[in-house]
Amino acid sequence: MLSARNIFETSSIIGTMQPLRVLHRAALVLGAIVLFAAAKDFVKPSARPANTYPAHDDHTDEKVAIAADPYDTPDKAKIFSVNFHEHGFLPVFFVVTNDGSLPISIANIDVKLITANHSKLTPTSPEDIYRRITNPQANTRPPEPIPIPHKKVKGTISEKEQNEIESSQFAAKAVEPHTTQSGFLFFDIEDISAPLAGAHIDVTGVNDAKGAELMYFELPLDKYLIPPQKKK
Fold this sequence. Notes:
The protein is of the alpha+beta class and about 230 residues long. About 25% of the residues lie in helices and about 20% in strands.
């Protein structure tokens, strides 16, 4: 039989274990919350070879291909927590594949989205994206030739949104042999109702290992508007 002392000691141990169980459960819940939050962080899509995308240009002689994949639908854009369409931006997944035996340089690459009415859009900088998100009235287009005073843009952007914008950017300076580099370019289409129809992307500034520039690449974006042909 248990003595009074044993009963007291057993009760004390059980009493001590109860808060420990509560703390353990709280730690498990907190860990699940952290894992859930981490799962919501931006993950860049895995890039396929550039010549497998509808909008691509493949220079078979130089063994270099470049592709553009617009994220213009809600289903594709859901990988982002930022609603870029709401803020007037078109995210374009930009892919460069080098199937040659020597590296290529894209440090001086120049990318322009040319619309059907011949407007030439260049990728928007992260700073201008922040400015638009924190102030929808902010103008992110290039400044006018005559300096015009602008009010300082006020607002905040979350650390998560900032990390997402920065980590998603296409930032490669070179492409090693038999590899693919990818990332997003963001174009300001706030005043353009149908940015893909009749549009294409021109790419220049791609140099081979000897420093010679390759012929320009032209990526027809309206290929994404053509429905796939049914197999007979």
